[in-house]
Amino acid sequence: MNFLAWIQKALAVWHGIFSFLLCLIFSGMLISMNGSERVVFHEVMISTFFYPLQSVISRLDVTVRVYRENDQLKGRNASLRIENDLLRQELRQTPRLAGMERFRSESALRLKPGRVISQNAGRLQSTWVIDLGTVDSVKVNMPVVTALGVMGKTAKCFRGHSVIQLLGDPAFKVSAQDDRSRVRGILESYRLYRLMARFPAGADVHPGDTLITAGAGGVFPAGLRIGVCEEEVSETEEQSGDVLRSFRVRPFQELATVEEAFVLIKEDRWSISGGEVAP
Amino acid sequence: MNPWKRFLAEGGMLAGALLLQQTLVRWIAFGPVRPDLTLIALTVLALRRGSIAGLYGGMALGLVQDVYAVEALGANVLAKSLIGYGLGFFEERIVKIMPATRVLLLGAAFAAHDLIFYLAAGIRGSMFWSAWLRQSLPSALYTLVLGGLAFYYAAGVRPKDG
Question: Residues A6-64: pLDDT tens digits?
Fold first, then answer.
């Protein structure tokens, strides 16, 4: 009893110190979690407390932004109509049958539109949550794109929502290809928020070249637009020696403006560029 | 003020800061440079209510942010609760603080927050300096400008033109 009374008295007098220690212990427990434990923690919190809350916040957010989005979409719609007419005329005139075949294939893609219902709350943008899940036929490792280009891929799928791993995630890598010279390389995150494309030394790549997905790896079909090569990173900054050429990449899709995205529903093994479908 | 009303008001302030951080900030951000409204709200709370409120307020804010950033799980909780606790020692019922001093405290809090965050998240070496110079420093200046305006208006002192 004396001990309990002492504990009560100590808690009353030193509640600040106890709170501080409690917080340190809690933080330490979170930091010391391994990868799988962190994922479980994330899933439990998202699926129980935060998903309904984020859904409500997202609806409010959509209401606030709808007027601005409407204006932007009107302008973009007019621009795309004109661009679409011009592209149609060009496609009719071009003798390249392969290009037409690819266009036909692309237009037949099975795209599932979804709304981004939560974003990474920190300053490091690595994962988002979208309101499409397994009930919408969404599975893990499906490409997530917008009209402008690739955004990322599905990393975790739940019944009504999925976690998207964005291009900027340090663990994200995708095989990329120079659209002009057809040289293949790897696109990955660089210093937390930038993108870097690495090609073999001597590769024919120049700033301003467009990067598309190469189709290797089984997640992204070949031919999806990624971004534009910017300046080449010097050897002293990148320390890749004379083995690789590294270019900073500006993605076509700026993440700050994304509110809706498409999940590309696909089977595991296929290709849209060559027109061949794996068995 | 009724303690429950005060609790709800201050909790609402933190929730509002989180909400604005998720919605408004993306429109006023310059690429990776974005103000940290949650840190401004935490500074206001800790200076008003002291260390314990700052500690738990920071812990709650950090936990919400950490849930969406599992790669740095615990780093936001640790950084924000320590900052809230530390700022609470300058509680305005004990220490008289001018608005300019609050802005200085906010700047120090931002620097300490990012330092703790990067270390706890395991970001070190060249990546640490790169993140610090290209993201933390500009974001800190941006936050100080917004925080300064908020403190001046909250104190009823409007900065003179020119």
Answer: 877 877 778 888 888 988 999 999 888 888 888 888 888 887 877 777 777 777 777 77
Query: Across the interface, which of A23, A41, A119 has its CB nearest the CB of B73?
Result: A41
pLDDT in tens, A217-252: 888 888 888 999 998 887 555 555 568 888 999 998
What separation in angstroms does the CA of A167 have from each of A61, A246, A251, B10?
A: 24, 17, 9, 37
- Which residues, 6 or more positions from B1, have their beta carbon under 8 angstroms from its beta carbon? B9
Distance between CA atoms of residues B32 and B86, nearest Å? 27
Q: Chain A residues with CB inside 8 Å of B120's CB?
A: 27, 31
Picking from B70, B89, B139, B143 by the largest number of A CB atoms within 10 A of its own CB, the best residue to mutate is B70
d(CA A113, CA A145): 10
Write the pLDDT tens digit of every residue in A85-121: 778 766 665 554 454 345 445 556 677 888 888 877 6
Put simply, the answer to whether B18 touches A121 (Cβ < 8 Å) is yes
* Per-residue model confidence (pLDDT) at position B162: 38
Please judge whether A30 and B130 are an interchain contact, meaning their C-beta atoms are less than 8 angstroms apart.
Answer: no
Closest alpha carbon to A40 in B119, B118, B61, B73: B73
| CB nearest B69 (choices: A28, A61, A122) | A122
The pTM is what?
Answer: 0.53
Contacts (Cβ under 8 Å, ≥6 apart) of A190? A196, A248
Taking the C-alpha atoms of residue B132 and residue A58, their distance in angstroms, rounded to an integer, is 31
Q: Which residues of A touch B32 (CB under 8 A)?
A: 123, 192-193
Span of B29-33, B80-84, B112-116 with lowest mean pLDDT: B29-33
